[in-house]
Amino acid sequence: MAEHPELSAQERAGKAFPVSWDQFHRDCRALTWRLNEVGPFHAVIAITRGGLVPAAIVARELGVRIIDTVCIASYDHTKQGDLKVLKGISADTAKLGGGTGKGLLIVDDLVDTGKTGRLVREMIPDAHFATVYAKPMGRPLVDTFITEVSQDTWIFFPWDTALSFQPPIRDGAA
Ligand SMILES: O=P(O)(O)OC[C@H]1O[C@H](OP(=O)(O)OP(=O)(O)O)[C@H](O)[C@@H]1O
Ligand SMILES: O=c1[nH]c(=O)c2nc[nH]c2[nH]1
Ligand SMILES: [Mg+2]
User: Which residues does the UniProt record annotate as the domain Phosphoribosyltransferase (predicted)?
Assistant: First the structure.
């Protein structure tokens, strides 16, 4: 990944993995089937912004009504810069997790390099960390995930994309 620092993470990725709303919903439900065996959880913590969508679906399926956020900014579109914690976990949620995060569920859409996940894990080390997708570098940080894609794959989420014309594969479409 470091050989071409001038390229964005997406450009370096090379392979595309587009995910539709329908597929994402199914993958979130599959994730919840696994999490249901691990819980119960006092609260769900979404890592914004990508974690908001899976957190809503998972919380609905698990019957959890306390939802908090950790707001982190890192990728500026597709280039990862320094991580900035814009908002931490609320005092109420921290109390529910006994200070270490026990019984709390952190949800994000994916782990890539693992930098974001590592930062949140350091805040609440005993929390359970779930993502829908995982790339190999970030995978060791995650307790539960559904689909692994290779490190050189860029995942395109439905909230970042729109339907558009694609040239036929024979003419060079990906
Ligand atoms: O494992 P990492 O290399 O840290 O990358 C994973 C993080 O990157 C994306 O978030 P992003 O920072 O793009 O912000 P967003 O959720 O607001 O889109 C994604 O939603 C994860 O939170
Ligand atoms: O939309 C995204 N797709 C990815 O594969 C990715 N990796 C880090 N951040 C990401 N955002
Ligand atoms: Mg994110």
Answer: 20-165
